[in-house]
Structures are given as structure tokens and as C-alpha cells.
């Protein structure tokens, strides 16, 4: 509950209905008072769609129809009104997707969309762990992890830093990919990052944070300066105590006034070099400009639009 500038956590209890089983790699979006949860993984890929009504504290499973997609994990999920879009993800071990699906929540109908290829390059390759963000009438796809092996059992990882946009037309299923011409230094390749869209008076921004591009969870971060991570270690005023993080994830939450980010992918060692992707990168949408902001010690500062 976020109210009057004093956020308060509260565990939800007393719910009714068919509760989703434990999972990871799933996604959730909000439609008014509804939270829609799809996919994920738990001893296999989950293909279930669950909806939670925050007003009545009830879970339910809608009767879907149409081109129902296979289960997937670590995919892209955006909500445009009552229209939900799913892109990519892992559909089975070593097998990734670049399919695009639409779910019309007003009638719980799935439809597979055939997006046109961009004029200046190939369409997005199959991937997982990418970000998929909605700004206005466009979705922005960034990064992720591809598998360059034709044998799913022999994974050859390739980390991505490509950027695509997808224009959405109200009431139309005709969509097409575009490859924006960007300025500035692009972010290094990564997956499992977060991307938050912000809108301002003069420009819209896509803020990309964290992620990983290494093999070993305790390996050196691909682009995280050693001195830059000292703010996450004991001894820095206000820093949390050292904790062991086993999840290869982090959190980036945006509200109208505040962005709160918590980085993970850290092993138990106090060596500041053993951290992945503690950098912050913004993409100004109009015009397309990439700005890289390196982490640093000192006091916490806020960024305005």
C-alpha cells in the first residue's frame, strides 16, 4: 500500500479461488483492479493463465479461446488497455521463441500476430530475458538471451543489446517491427534486466537497469566497475548489511514520483568485483538518445525528467 508518501507492506491473506502454483520467470500485468499472471517455470514450463481480483481478493481462471500460446517463461508482457501482448520467452529447455501473441481480456481471446519485418534489418530473433515496454502506442524490445545452437541440449548463449519498436494500432491486429536509429553509446548486451518507461513534458524515456551477461553467478560483472559497487557493501552510510542472494534477479519499481531499484545477482563474497551489472542506462525516446550513467559512491540522488 503506497499512500501519503509512507509505503507499507502487507501480506495478502484470506484469498479464495484456484491459486497459481509456485513458479519463476512468469510475468504479471494490471488491468484496473485485475492482476493477470501467465506462464513461468516450475519443474517444466507453465502454460496457465490466472487472474487475481484485488477488490474481492479472489483468484479465477478465465475460459480462454483462440490461438492459445504454449507455456513460456522469461518472456515480454505488456498491457495496452484491455489488450495484452506476449513476446518471446523460453518454451522448453534450450528452445526460445520470437512469436507474438495478443490476448483481448474483454473476452479472453488469444490471437497470434504476424508482425511485419523491419525495412532496415531482420526481425527479432528468438530470445528470453528481454524487456518489453509500452510507451504511448509503441512497444520497445531490448536485449535478452539467444541460443545460437540448433541442438536445444547444446546451448550456445548469445547476449543481445538490440532495440526494436512495435507500433500498436487501436482496433487493428496489423503490427510491424522497426529498428530505431539511435544516438549515443548503446548498453552492453544483457538479459534479465529491468526497463521502466517514464513520460515527461519534453521527452519519453526508457530506463534500463542491471541484468547479466556472464556465465558464473559469482563471476566478474561484464561492465560493473569495481569502485562503483562499493555503495552496495557494508560501511557505506545507510547500506544494508551483507546478505546472500541466490536469485539471479533484481527489482526496479517506478511510481509517479519515485523509482526504487534493488540489484541482485550477487554472491556471498565481500569482493566488490563479484557483482553483475550495477549500471543505469536511459534511452530518450524522442529523439533516440542513449545515455549511460555509471554507479558511484556518495549520497543517494534523485533524477528528474
TrEMBL record:
**One example GO MF annotation:** transcription coactivator activity
Q: Where is the Host cell factor Kelch-repeats domain?
A: 7-216
Pfam families for the chain = Kelch_HCF
InterPro entries noted in UniProt: HCF1/2, Kelch-typ_b-propeller, Kelch_HCF
Tell me the keywords, alphabetical order.
Repeat
Assigned GO CC terms: histone methyltransferase complex
| Entry keyword annotation includes Acetylation | no
- Taxonomically, the superkingdom here is Eukaryota
- The parts of the chain that form a coiled coil are none
Q: Which GO terms describe its biological process?
A: chromatin remodeling
Q: Which PANTHER family match?
A: HOST CELL FACTOR (PTHR46003), HOST CELL FACTOR 1 (PTHR46003:SF3)
Any idea what this protein is called? Host cell factor Kelch-repeats domain-containing protein
